[in-house]
Each structure stands twice: as C-alpha cells, then as structure tokens.
Amino acid sequence: FQFFWLSLNVWLFGKTFLLYNQGLQYYYLHQMLGLGLCVSRASASVLNLNCCLVLLPMCRVLLAFLRGSQKVASKKTRRLLDKSKTFHVTCGVTICIFSVLHVAAHLVNALNFSENYNEEFVTLNAANYRGEDPRKLLFATVPGLTGIIMVLVLFLMCTASTYAIRVSNYDIFWYTHNLFFVFYMLLMLHVSGGVLKYQTNLEEHPPGCFNPNKTLRQNLTVPKAFEELFPDYTTESFPEDLPVPEPFVQNSFMRVCSEEPKFQSHFPETWLWISGPLCLYCVEKLYRYIRSNKPVTITSVISHPSNVLEVRMVKDDFEARPGQYVILHCPRVSALESHPFTLTMCPTDTKATFGVHLKVVGDWTERFRDLLLLHSNQDTEILPMFQQRRYPKLYVDGPFGSPFEESLNYEVSLCVAGGIGVTPFASILNTLLDGWKCYKLRRLYFIWVCRDIESFRWFADLLCTLHNKLWQENRPDYINIQLYLSQTDGIQKIIGEKYQALNSRLLIGRPRWKLLFDDIAKCNRRKTIGVFCCGPNKISKILHKLSNSSNSYGTRFEYNKESFS
C-alpha cells in the first residue's frame, strides 16, 4: 500500500513537472528560473494532495460510522478502513520527502530571481534589482518567512514521531503533533504571496514572438545618413494602420506580437485542498468534546499482577461493540493528554458497566494508577477496591472502531494475543459468554503468548467460565484455547483449583506458527478464516506472511491487525 501511494505521488509530480516545463504560459518564468520552477510547483501539487488527505484518517467518528453502517457492506472495503493509521503515516512521510524538494527548489529560485533579474519583465521578478541578496526573499517576504517557520514545525513533528521518542516520552510526541494546526494556518498564508506568475495574454503575445515596435529598434542598426534624413523614424513606433508585408512578418518561423506580455499571480489553490478536511476535523473534534464532556462514574478499580490495572465504569447512553476502543482523559493527570484503550467489557442490555485494562508502562499510566489506588504499592493479588473514596474525574471519548469488530463476522477466526495485547479479545470473549448463537462465528482459535505465568491471571476467570459454559452446552469445540509461556525456569502452572482447564492448555515455549496454520487449514478446508493479531511486530509480521501464503487445502486466511488511529 505504501509503495502504491508513493508511486502515485511520483506520477503526479512528473505530470506537474512536464506541465510547467512545457506550458507556454510559463515560458518567460521558466527562462528566468529554469528547473527550479518545475520542481517547486510539482512538489507543491503533491504537498497539496497529501496535506488534504493526512487529516482524514484522524477523523475517528467518521471511520467508526462508516465501519458500523450498512453503507460499507463489503468486508474487504471495511478492512481498508483499518489501514487508516498506515495511510496517515504514509501521507506524513510523503509530506516530509516532497517538502525537502520544495524547499531546495525555492532556494534555487531565490538565487535565480536575483541573478537573472530582467528589466523587461518587472512584474515577473520577485527581486527588486539585479544582485539583490536572496536572503531578503526568504526572510523579508510572507511566503519566505512562513515557509521557514513551517519547515521548523514540520521538523519538530517528524522527529517527535519517531518510535524512540514515542516510547520514551509520549508527551513530546503528543504536544508537537498538535502543532499541525499552526502548520495549516501558516500554509494558507504561505500561498498568498503570489511570487510565481504566469502569462495571461498568450494569443496577443505568443512566447518568442516578433515585436515590430520593439524588436526592430533594439536589434536593427539604422544607417547614420538615413537617421539624419528621417530623424523621427528611430523614436516612433510603426503606424498601427500601416499594413506590413506578409512575407516579411508572418512566416513559418515567427509570429507578430500585438502587445507586451502580461503576467498574473496564480490563484491560491491550497486553501481549497485543505479547508474541507480541516473543517471536517474541527467539527468532529467539537462533536467529540460535546459528547465526552460529562465524566463517567468509576464503579471499581482492580489491581492485577504484572502492573496491570482494570477500571470499570458506567456512563449514560453509552453503547459499544466488542473490539472497539475508547480514549481516556483525566485532567488531574494531564490537562491536554489522552490515550486510547481497548474495551475489555462492553455494556449489554442487562448491564451498563464497561471497562478497560491498562498496563502501567509510562508517566501517564503511573500517575493515573496513583490517583485511582489508595496506595501506589498494591499487593499483586486481584483485590477489588470497594473502599468509599472520591475517584478523580475521568472522561471517556468514543467508542471507535477497530478491525476486531470483524472477528464475530467470520465462521472461523484465529485470534493471537501477545501480553497485554489480549485486551481486544477480552470484550469478544465476554460477548460470547453472554450468548454466541446470534453471531456468525462457529469456531474460535485463541492463542495467547505471555512472558510470565502471572499475566494469564488477568483473564483466567473469564476463560474458565467461558470454557465451562461451552462444555455445558455441548460445544467444547467452539473455542480452542492455547496458552504459551515464552519464558520459564521450570514447570509452571496457573495456581488455583478452578484453573485446571487452563493448566492443561498451557504450553512452554513459543508457538510453531507454520504448523499451527497448517493444522487450522486442514481442519477448515476451503473456508475463509479471519486472522486477528494484537501484539509485538515480530509476531504480526510472521502471521501476515503466513496469511498471504497459499496452502494445499484451499483455505484462505485474511489478516487483520490492531492499530489505534
């Protein structure tokens, strides 16, 4: 997908480059600036397109509406919506690449405007005189100054978006990324300068035409004796009513100019590209603010092993589908910062409670945990916190769609989780516990890989309850549970009598993915299986590769991956 999009942008760059290189209306400007004109305008066209589309994947409400509505009935089309984050990143990378080209081209243009100053076309020149310092064009004009500031803003946004900074200090990423609004405002000012101009009177003045009133006076040498006999000839123009001999003027090589060339600045088109998506994004942000301005009621907080916190809450008129996620905002933790978390429990017709599991791995989650728990160093046992206390205000924005909503729409699904990546599947398992017969799903392969044995206790009760329920309904083959402990010092098991069903499904080591896929394909011949993964990129890449590979059983695997927008 990334290769296709970059190829499309290169094609657009090439088409625009040829337009400015061969277009007659840019003849005189091209003579002055050379290839700098073509490169700057071609890169600008690519930037307009990508600055227009980069905001659309961030319109979460729109994506959730399209996914949940019948307007997008095709499963394949809905899977494209799951590429929203990938598309956003691809557009961002494209903006960075072509911004470098755009800046380099305009640096050359500023130099050429100064060195190639032409007194015949004063209105075409951006410089005021020949040899003017090009730095004045960069620092003393609206396009130049706004361009420099935009480069600095874009540099901050790009560097803070790297994986290392996002992991080490998410606050830097969040705050710098919100500079996009400044970038867009500067972009609208940037195109208002009208530095580059095109010729408007091509019919009256074809580029390179013959001007009898000007060219002859400049290029023909009049004999001195002839000048003395006809002193007015050298200063007067050709009479307009005097017919010029046809063979002398109009031949196959030269056309006559009827007037001087006229130049006009381009109409600023950038705001037409970005105003629509920018307004849509702002309207959605306003809608989300209104929808989430009422805090939720936290009913309980549970401290799980391995630094995992479960928060259960209720909110009026809150509805969600299994697999969706919400964005939590706690003003006492951070006035502006918020984070997405997958729902592990969805409200139903019988209960209004919904919940999330969050792993304490950063500053935000650490401060949030300290505010929720009475003491920051809690015991590792699963202890409900029913003590009466005032929890901090917590606002919930959402829910928003994710690819895991599709897991119930396949006849057979393979769900693979790595560590805390099990959270999207928890809401699906909870939904199946309430009733599975109303869904298309008839067989679920659930693979969960963890580093320590205690992590399985996050949802051990849920897995055992669902397993026992399916056995009572005579459907033990409905779910196939496989738990993998990747790191161990010896024989391990989940402590507790009620977890015997899980202990028999606990394996030491890592899954042998190729054998696992072959076995699933053999048991589900000529079927389409949905593959869902939420975990480390290494596992994701392996599953993606195996899903795309063919097998001898006619089974087709469709790959889906969790990706927060």
UniProtKB/TrEMBL annotation:
The chain crosses the membrane at residues 42-66, 87-108, 137-160, 172-191. The gene is Nox4. This is NADPH oxidase 4. Residues 291-406 form the FAD-binding FR-type domain. PROSITE patterns: FAD_FR. InterPro entries: Cyt_b245_heavy_chain, FAD-bd_8, FAD-bd_FR_type, Fe3_Rdtase_TM_dom, Fe_red_NAD-bd_6, FNR_nucleotide-bd, RBOH/FRE, Riboflavin_synthase-like_b-brl. GO terms for biological process: defense response; superoxide anion generation. Its EC number is 1.6.3.1. Keywords: Cell junction, Cell membrane, Cytoplasm, Disulfide bond, Endoplasmic reticulum, Glycoprotein, Membrane, NADP, Nucleus, Oxidoreductase, Transmembrane, Transmembrane helix.
